[in-house]
Design goal:
The chain is built from three helices and three strands. By secondary structure, it is an alpha+beta fold.
């Protein structure tokens, strides 16, 4: 938490949004990107969320929730980076 700074809120803006990645990578249209944009806009500007720093908002459930288990594993970011490195070396 940053008591004297900006709020930091982890966000899942919504699954299967119609991003370029979804279209090109998975061949799926997905849901309107405005769904995710509206969530981010609201969390950034709505005074209701001024005290939400350090929390995780899951738009698939529509409320604050526990983050995914991997997000709580301190070794996970390093494993993800190593996985990307291995993939890049392979290709």
């Amino acid at each position: 938490m940053l008591p004297d700074g900006p709020a930091v809120i982890a966000v899942n803006p919504g699954s299967l949004l119609a991003s370029k990645m979804m279209k090109e990578g998975f061949g799926l249209g997905g849901n309107d990107l405005n769904i995710g944009a509206d969530v981010l806009f609201g969390l950034a500007l709505d005074p209701e969320f001024e005290e939400a720093s350090g929390r995780f908002f899951d738009n698939d459930d529509g409320h604050f929730n526990q983050p995914p288990t991997a997000a709580l594993d301190a070794s996970h970011p390093s494993a993800v980076i190593e996985g990307f490195r291995s993939f890049a070396d392979f290709n």
